[in-house]
User: Fold this.
Amino acid sequence: EDLIWQDPIPPLDHALIDLERLDPRQADIVTLRFFGGLEGAEIAAALGISERTVKREWAMAKLWLYRELAH
Assistant:
């Protein structure tokens, strides 16, 4: 019987690790949004940045994650 090795780390976790290396702030925004359940204003306050910056960085991070997870 063939055993197939499966990576115990889900693809999203791999992508977040890579994003952390490329852009730590974007990774923080994704983490606070996905896992912390925070909204834009709450993320902005937590990170000491503007809500507009959160929206811009969130949009870029979503696009980057989509590309990473799509292949």
Observations:
- Residues 51 and 71 are 31 Å apart (CA to CA).
- The chain has a mean pLDDT of 91.
- Helices lie at 11-22, 24-34, 40-47, 51-70.
- The chain has four helices and no strands.
